[in-house]
Amino acid sequence: MIKNTGSIRGMKKLAQFVTQIVRRVLVASKFGKFSKYPRDNSLELAMLSSSEQAYSKSSTSLIDEIICLMTEEKVYKCPDLDLKSLSERLQTPSYLVTKAINEGLGLNFYELINRYRVEEVESLLINHDHKRFTLMAVAFDAGFNSKTTFNTVFKKMTGVTPSHYRSRNCFVSNLRDRCGVNV
């Protein structure tokens, strides 16, 4: 527990703790992983040694860097992306990248990559410009390199097959276009 000393040092530790909790909640809500999300031991973060705090900060910034690479540079679109290449890109040992993903996001490396790929496929399937492409062309564009993996991962994460997802969204899109119905 943080003792109420009223000092600036205590306030900084509290601010760091709150920032970390907010970041974890935002990341957990993005991936829907509240139940698997590592539990923080109350305000004990402030009681960590300086080396443990440094690791905690570096782990948090590593998660930020990983998410930045995924969202801004879309490295998940590379079909041969693996832990080693991501680690090299981050200039961080692969065991630290794995630990940051596992503990910080509650996912393993491939779950993280595949979540971004499925989100990309979903956005491409909704986009009118991609209606003329086959499902596999869209999957390859999102970074999948196997039909089996694509179908399995997509169904696991969305609950429907890619073709059913596309047909359902085409129906909704056509209904919206023809009738002006907002579904």
Structural class: mainly alpha
User: Largest beta sheet, briefly?
Assistant: none
* Low-pLDDT segments: 33-57
Please bin the fraction of helical residues.
55-70%
Radius of gyration of CA atoms, rounded to a whole number: 20 Å
Inertia-based shape = elongated
List the domain count as a whole number: 2
Beta-strand share of residues: under 5%
| Topology order in helix (H) and strand (E) letters | HHHHHHHH
- End-to-end Cα distance, whole Å, is 49 Å
Number of helices: 8
Strands, total number: 0
> Average pLDDT value?
77
Keyword list:
single chain; 183 residues; mainly alpha
Structural write-up:
This protein has 183 residues and is mainly alpha-helical. The protein has 2 domains: 8-106, no CATH class; 114-179, no CATH class. It is built from 8 helices and no strands. It has helices spanning 8-31, 50-73, 83-90, 94-105, 109-126, 135-142, 147-158, 162-179. Helix 2 packs across helix 4. The chain is elongated, with a radius of gyration of 20 Å. The model is unreliable at 33-57 (pLDDT under 50).
Topology (elements, then pairings):
Elements: H1 8-31, H2 50-73, H3 83-90, H4 94-105, H5 109-126, H6 135-142, H7 147-158, H8 162-179
What is this structure, in a nutshell?
This protein is mostly helical and 183 residues long. It is built from eight helices and no strands. The protein has helices at residues 8-31, 50-73, 83-90, 94-105, 109-126, 135-142, 147-158, 162-179.
